[in-house]
Amino acid sequence: MSVAVIEPPVPMAETGPAFWSGGGDALVCTGVAAEVPGVRTFTFRAASGALFDYRPGQYVTLGVPVAEGAILWRSFTIASAPVTGGAATLALTIKAQPGARATGWLHQSLRPGMSLAARGPFGDFHLDDAGAAAAARPLMLISAGSGATPMASMARWLAGQESRRPVHYFHLARTEGDLLFHAEMTAFAASRPHWQLSWVTSEREGRPDAARLAASLPGLGGAEVFCCGPAGFVGSVAAAFQAAGGDAALWREEGFGANPVGPVVPEAPVPAESAPAAGGLAVRIEPLGREITVSAGETLLEAALRQGVPIPSSCRKGQCSTCRVRKLSGEVDMQDDGGLFEDEIEAGDILACCSRPLTPLTIKIG
Ligand SMILES: Cc1cc2nc3c(=O)[nH]c(=O)nc-3n(C[C@H](O)[C@H](O)[C@H](O)COP(=O)(O)OP(=O)(O)OC[C@H]3O[C@@H](n4cnc5c(N)ncnc54)[C@H](O)[C@@H]3O)c2cc1C
Ligand code: FES
């Protein structure tokens, strides 16, 4: 009879004042490496020399200077693994979206030695310090496209801990040449019999639906699942998980630009007071020249997305600054969590995710 050996997890580093926490402490690029076509890994150290303490799966937000005086705040998962006691560097693996501004600038212009303003680490999509029960439970790390980055951090961390936890690492890309971290994960699995790998390409096999995913992921219903990728992919995995009887408490998902898919937990009825009401306050959005209406109780971000205005967001709790917009006129009630610097506040910036208009507004996005 084989006996499962459950090792106590090595705790992640305690957060302390010596650790990097963004703000005035810029990130200095120390290296750029090509991964697959259109994807590069950028390595950074803290300008102050502080170490990085984060959890596998968390992200940082970079202030990307796309043009003179124009900074776009964009979020990127830390693909490298945390190190007990703090890591000297962190790595971000970034796909340049066709025509996209921040990722385009990072690929074209960011070179070793250059500094970027940054914030973080942020995010609830991460492995926890596992107790014995979680350490024995099978873990599925399921991703598509650049959604591989949090999975890489988790897999690297587990490998570094010599964890005995059963891991199924599943990744979908368009072609074989687009499979991120293929060689590294293959090497991890080769020396770890408790690891299983699935590499799938839509070019060869088409986009997997829930039924095919369920067949490729035996034991899905009994596993703890982390899933990251385009909304359609996450939705299919969620449907497979639900059909397999998965426990909602063991499902974690992240999207890189879309709203959570929310697979298992039954939809709670929308409370009457948060449902969009008739009337509301008018917000003019420049440079689009569009006007939207913000209903009672709605944030600017909720109203903008509801009416098809694409304001980027990540944390949605006033920390990461991704949803920063400039207020040109009017007043808001902003309940942020430290997501703006003093000079940004003085310049009129607000965070759309936690701002509710008190008067009609004009804002500028982009
Ligand atoms: C938590 C998190 C982690 C991420 N991790 C990674 C990563 O590890 N690697 C990686 O390559 N990418 C990652 N992304 C995605 C990355 O932030 C986007 O690729 C980037 O924001 C695109 O910005 P851009 O300026 O290049 O594109 P843009 O020029 O802004 O536009 C491209 C399109 O994407 C939309 N968009 C941009 N950002 C967002 C957003 N946050 N929410 C909704 N819509 C948005 C724009 O409105 C526009 O329609 C992550 C995103 C989030 C939220
Ligand atoms: S989305 Fe993070 S501050 Fe608004």
Tell me, what's the shape? Answer: globular
Structural class: alpha/beta
Output the CATH homologous superfamily of the largest domain: Nucleotide-binding domain of ferredoxin-NADP reductase (FNR) module
Question: Helical content, roughly?
Answer: 10-25%
- Count of separate structural domains: 3
Distinct helical segment count: 9
Spatial strand order of the main sheet:
4-3-6-1-2-5
Q: How many DSSP-defined strands? A: 18
Low-pLDDT residue spans: 1-17, 258-277
The small molecules bound here are: flavin-adenine dinucleotide, FE2/S2 (inorganic) cluster
Mean pLDDT over the full residue set: 88
Strand residue percentage: 25-35%
* Radius of gyration, taken over Cα atoms and rounded to an integer in Å: 21 Å
The top level CATH class name of the largest domain: Alpha Beta
The first-to-last residue Cα distance is 61 Å
Return the CATH topology of the largest domain.
Answer: Rossmann fold
Largest sheet: 6 strands, antiparallel
State the CATH architecture of the largest domain: 3-Layer(aba) Sandwich
Order of helices and strands: EEEEEHEHEHEHEHHEHEEEHEEHEEE
Q: What is the structure about, briefly put?
A:
This protein is an alpha/beta fold.
Could you describe the 3D structure shown?
With 366 residues, this protein is an alpha/beta fold. The protein folds into three domains: 23-122, Beta Barrel (Elongation Factor Tu (Ef-tu), domain 3); 132-254, Nucleotide-binding domain of ferredoxin-NADP reductase (FNR) module (Rossmann fold); 275-364, Beta-grasp domain (Ubiquitin-like (UB roll)), CATH 3.10.20. It has helices at residues 101-109, 132-136, 148-160, 182-190, 202-205, 210-216, 231-243, 300-306, 342-346; strands spanning 23-34, 39-46, 59-67, 70-77, 90-95, 115-122, 139-144, 167-173, 195-201, 224-228, 251-254, 281-286, 290-294, 324-329, 332-334, 349-351, 355-357, 361-364. The strands form four sheets. A six-stranded antiparallel sheet has the order 4-3-6-1-2-5. A five-stranded parallel sheet has the order 9-8-7-10-11, sandwiched between helices. β7 (139-144), α3 and β8 form a beta-alpha-beta unit. α6 crosses α7. The longest helix has 13 residues, at 148-160. Bound molecules: flavin-adenine dinucleotide and FE2/S2 (inorganic) cluster (FES).
